[in-house]
Design brief:
The chain is an alpha+beta fold. β1, α1 and β2 form a beta-alpha-beta unit. A two-stranded parallel ribbon has the order 1-2. Strands 3-4 form a two-stranded antiparallel sheet. Strands 5-6 form a two-stranded antiparallel sheet. Helices cover about 45% and strands about 10% of the residues.
């Protein structure tokens, strides 16, 4: 094994493996390092006691970009997307379950069982998500600009992102800017 690599990926979780595979396909000599004996990170299931197995913690693969599936030929390797209806089920302590349906009307009815006030605003929330989704998808599907030594292309891309965000209108733009950093808090 050579000790010279173009790229060393730390962690063999689903994101690290994806990055390593794409880099290797692009001709980079890539090494993946993982401290555990199991690859896949939170997507990997494990036997935690003889005869007892748990699924991985990754429960939502909706964020897997179609171009990644195509580029890596994942369907040829057994990837199947199953339509789960409803896509979200949350068991409750009272033995009931909260179901979040794709259909906004059904989702609103389900929310109404728990919170009529939230159900009244759910349509507005879904409409907001529909408006911002194309802007966020464009941001997530493109490589980030180099913020340390930006070239003309990087500055142009940043300008396009800013313009698409501004075109949402002031209220939606400000709401995106308010909620975007929340996962970091």
């Amino acid at each position: 094994m050579s000790d010279r690599y173009d790229v060393i990926v730390i962690g063999a979780g689903h994101n690290g493996l994806t990055a390593a595979a794409l880099l290797a396909r692009a001709g980079r000599k890539t090494l993946v390092l993982e401290r555990r004996a199991v690859v896949g990170g939170i997507a990997a299931g494990e036997e935690f006691h003889p005869g007892y197995r748990t699924d991985g913690l990754l429960h939502d693969t909706a964020g897997v970009r179609p171009w990644v599936v195509d580029e890596l030929g994942l369907e040829k390797h057994g990837l199947q997307h199953l339509d789960t209806t409803p896509p979200v089920l949350v068991p409750r302590r009272d033995g009931e379950a909260f179901l979040l349906w794709r259909d906004a009307g059904r989702a609103g009815e389900e929310i109404r069982r728990l919170s009529p006030a939230d159900a009244e605003r759910y349509g507005e929330y879904r409409a907001f998500l529909d408006r911002i989704a194309p802007v966020l998808r464009r941001l997530l599907d493109n490589p980030p600009p180099d913020i340390f030594e930006p070239g003309a292309g990087d500055l142009l891309r940043l300008g396009r992102y800013a313009l698409s965000l501004r075109r949402l209108g002031k209220a939606d733009m400000m709401e995106v800017l308010r909620i975007a950093p929340m996962p970091l808090a």
